[in-house]
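Category: protein sequence paired with discrete backbone structure
Discipline: computational structural biology
Format: plain text, a pair of labelled lines
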Amino acid sequence: MTKHQDLLAQFKLLSATAQSEVLQSFRAEFEGKGKLLEVAQLENITKKTCPHCGNGRVHKRGKQSGVQMYKCTDCLKWFSSTTGTPLWDIKKKEKWQSYLNCMQQGMSIKKTAKEIGISIQTSFDWRHKILSVLNKEVPKKLSGRIECDELELPLSNKGERNLTRKARKRSSDFVRNTKTKEVTTVQVVSAIDENNQTYFKAIETKRITTKHLNKTLGKKIDKHATLITDKHPSYRPFVKSKPSIKHKTVKSNEHVDKDDKNVNLQKVNNQHKQLRLFLERFNGVSSKYLQNYLNWFAYGKNMENFANQTKQWFSAILITDIAYNLYQLLKINAVNIRT
């Protein structure tokens, strides 16, 4: 037998408790050396163009700290397989596997920092570099039967130093739709189709309008789709401008049509319930970063069917090129949250 088969045979002789301890030990060793990153790189990374000049003629030039290096034949600049991705210019790549596992568990930034031994600022920066990738994972089209609704959340200025209003000390201090023009809410336009593709878009506004729906859903809905909504007045003119789309409505307080049980908002309302629970883990999310967290939630739901979710996260990060100058801008304008 091979060494692999010998090891497996010995493993089967152990008790269930001993097997669990061995697996945890192997996982700790695997994560500690960041091996999964190397596996994901080998399977997914093939640099075809130079991130500096766009030239496609590049050549491998060895490895540096386990990362493949390349040289462009045109501008003669060097770059790595992680250049332009969130992993570029990161000094502790071996800790990203443990970091992604913490993200899968929904840990807060501070708890994650303590868990893997990095600073709170580093934990914050890594999280938003990862989440910036997920903007490209948003579905381009929703088709078939599409349930659509909106979720209202309090506008949060968490982390801001100079508030123009009195700070809220508790959630009960939130006032919805004040008489002034001040916006105190975020409306999350939510849609889920029959293939369980989910789309979220956060808008800082008191109330959703037809203009908002055109901007968020206008190009997302397939022209032959059936849109199921509540009787919010903004949906009717939105659908009227798209005559090929069928529109069915239910009363907002019933969620299911009494005459046709197939016309309902159960899936999207269930997503709203799960989304609220997801956001509660972080003790409040700043509204300016809310879209990142919405994309995270939607992507996480898609990943539930994968046995090795951490590897899928790595694959998404490594094959998604972020524009070189955009990454530099992100680095310059990074938000400092040291406390």
